[in-house]
Amino acid sequence: MIDFDDIDLKNFRIENIPNSGYYIRDFISEKEEQELLDKVYTAPKPKWVTLKNRRLQNWGGKPTERGMISEPLPSWLKNSIFSKFSQLAIFDNCLKPKLPNHCLINEYESGQGIMPHEDGPFYYPTVATVSLKSHTILNLYKHRVNIASNMEQNETNLILEPEFSLLLEPRSLLVLQDDLYKTYLHGIEERNSDNLSEKNIMNLSDDMDKNVTLERFTRVSLTYRIVEKVIKVDIFKRNK
């Protein structure tokens, strides 16, 4: 495991991509991973929302255009993860709070993915994603303004090709900030396996076989963000 004392996030910057992309292998231990999975799968059934290609849990509140009625994050989603976030100063550029107030948990079974999308204006432009149980390949797509322009030209059959891709391994952390967060779409293809040689993967380690095919299993992702607009509700007035 990495000793996070006196370590700078810049040491983990992904080279040869736009600035503000960082990747840390073995961000958490196998023990921490299993403890998180145990909590995810023992959460109350109403916490799960089932979508077409995945299911998810919202923790901290539900972001809307008006803002988010904030709920405290449970301790199991913070614990050692927040101490590492603080040591790496991942969210320190935000005025307040300095740590995430929202966590979206996604479960992707093998063969499931998500269309290219942006996280939107609800969040401060930093996202920190912890991957559990299985790898995936995250694709990053060209500037959304260029994509919108092409679509306006009636290219309705436009197939988006990723500009580059990132391998997200179990127990890893991916941080996307600033322009990389604001101006790129990201998505996951619906596949059961990934041949690493078929993608322009920018964060492969030197000790990894580039010609290997990795089988996908069920993956759980913890996506930490800061919702800047929080609605304060007086629960005593609300219950009158």
UniProtKB/TrEMBL annotation:
It is found in: Nucleus. The keyword Transmembrane helix does not apply. The keyword Kinase does not apply. GO terms for molecular function: dioxygenase activity; metal ion binding. One of its GO terms (cellular component) is nucleus. Its main location: nucleus. Keywords: Dioxygenase, Iron, Metal-binding, Nucleus, Oxidoreductase. Gene3D superfamilies: Alpha-ketoglutarate-dependent dioxygenase AlkB-like. Residues 99-228 form the Fe2OG dioxygenase domain. Pfam families: 2OG-FeII_Oxy_2. Belongs to the alkB family. PANTHER family: ALPHA-KETOGLUTARATE-DEPENDENT DIOXYGENASE ALKB HOMOLOG 6. This is Fe2OG dioxygenase domain-containing protein. The lineage of its organism: Eukaryota, Fungi, Fungi incertae sedis, Mucoromycota, Glomeromycotina.
